[in-house]
Design a protein that fits this description.
amino-acid biosynthesis, six-stranded parallel sheet, 285 residues, 12 helices, Rossmann fold, alpha/beta, aromatic amino acid biosynthesis, six-stranded mixed sheet, Shikimate_DH-bd_N, binds 2'-monophosphoadenosine-5'-diphosphate
C-alpha cells in the first residue's frame, strides 16, 4: 500500500501470486512518459484477504485511486464492487477497479484489449461474418463477448469439454454456437478469424495440426498466449500463408482504460513499450 505521506495518485495490480505480472512495467512506462507523480505497484493478496483489501480501497485508507485485478480475484471483484458496469456484470469478472465518492466501480477491459490489438495490427480483420474461438475458459468469455458486440454473425466456440462451450453459448446469446473438438475442421470452413484462448502452446504443451486450410485465405489467426510470442498455432498459420497477430498487444491495450481512469491521461501503446515488455519476457522467461 502507498505510504500515507506520499503525494500523487497510486494504483495497483492485485492477485495471488503476483510476481509474474507485467502490468507494473506497462504502467511504470506511462507514468514516466507523462512525468506523473504517482505509482503503480503489485499487491499480493490471498482470496481470504481480498474483501478486506477491497474495503480499504473503498474507504480510502489504502491510498489508491484504483487498480487492476488478476487471477484469482476477477470474479470476487465484480461481486464485491458497488457499481459493476454492464460488461463486467455480464462476464462475471472484472479486471479494472476505480473509486469515486466512496464507491468501487468495476469494468473488464480484456475484450477491448483484444479488439484494439487486432485493429492496430490487422486493420479490416473484422470484415467477415464467422469467427471460431478455441477454448471455453475464463479467457474466452471476454473474447466471445467482444466479437459479438463487434457484430460477428456466427461465433463458434470449440472446446475439449463441450459442456463448457454450451454454457457460453447459453450465456452470450443466439449468435454463439458450441462444438466438440471433433467438429473443428467443419467449423473452420469459411471462417475469417480463428482465436486460441486455451493453454495449448504454452509451456511446450504439444499442439495438434489444425486444419487451417479450411479458413478463408484472407482470414486472421490470433492467439491470446504470448509466451512464447510466436506460438505453435501462429507458426502453423504462417506456414499456410495466413495473417497472424500475436497476443502481446491484448495485454498492452487492455491496460489503457485503467491508466486513463486512475491518472487522467490517455496513454498509447507504442513500439517502445512493446519492446520493453518483450525484453522483460526474455530476461524473466
Ligand atoms: P483460462 O481462464 O486461462 O481460460 P481455464 O478456465 O482453465 O483457463 O480454461 C482453459 C481452457 O484451455 C479450457 O477451454 C480448456 O479446455 P477444457 O474446458 O476442456 O478443460 C483448454 N485446454 C487446456 N488444456 C487443453 C488441452 N491439452 N487440450 C485442449 N484444450 C485444453
Amino acid at each position: 500500500m502507498p505510504d500515507s505521506r506520499e503525494t500523487g495518485r497510486h494504483a495497483f495490480v492485485v492477485g495471488y501470486p503476483i510476481k509474474h505480472s507485467r502490468s507494473p512495467i506497462i504502467h511504470g512506462y506511462w507514468l514516466r512518459q507523462f512525468e506523473i507523480e504517482g505509482s503503480y505497484r503489485a499487491e499480493e493478496v490471498t482470496e481470504a484477504d481480498f474483501p478486506v483489501f477491497l474495503g480499504r480501497l473503498r474507504d480510502g485508507t489504502a491510498g489508491y485511486s484504483g487498480g487492476n485485478v488478476t487471477i484469482p480475484h476477477k470474479e470476487m471483484a465484480v461481486r464485491l464492487a458497488d457499481r459493476p458496469d454492464v460488461l463486467s456484470e455480464e462476464l462475471g469478472a472484472a479486471n479494472t477497479l476505480w473509486v469515486e465518492d466512496g464507491l468501487v466501480y468495476s469494468t473488464n477491459t480484456d475484450g477491448l484489449g483484444f479488439l484494439a490489438n487486432l485493429d492496430e495490427r490487422r486493420p479490416g480483420w473484422d470484415r467477415f461474418e464467422k469467427a471460431v474461438v478455441l477454448g471455453a475458459g475464463g479467457a474466452s468469455r471476454a473474447i466471445i463477448q467482444a466479437l459479438r458486440d463487434r457484430g460477428f454473425d456466427e461465433i463458434h466456440v470449440v472446446n475439449r469439454t463441450v459442456e463448457r462451450a454450451e454454457e457460453l453459448a447459453d450465456r452470450f446469446g443466439r449468435k454463439v454456437f458450441a462444438h466438440p473438438m471433433g467438429a473443428l475442421a467443419e467449423v473452420l470452413t469459411g471462417a475469417g478469424l480463428f482465436v486460441n484462448t486455451t493453454s495449448l502452446g504454452m509451456h511446450g504443451i504439444p499442439v495438434p495440426d489444425f486444419p487451417l486450410e479450411r479458413l478463408k485465405p484472407e482470414a486472421t489467426v490470433t492467439d491470446i498466449v504470448y509466451v512464447p510470442l510466436v506460438t505453435p498455432l501462429l507458426l502453423q498459420a504462417e506456414h499456410h500463408g495466413l495473417a497472424t497477430v500475436d497476443g502481446l498487444g491484448m495485454l498492452l491495450h487492455q491496460a489503457v482504460p485503467g491508466f486513463e481512469k486512475w491518472f487522467g491521461r490517455r496513454p498509447e501503446v507504442t513500439p517502445e513499450l512493446r519492446a520493453l515488455v518483450i525484453a522483460d519476457m526474455e530476461t524473466h522467461a
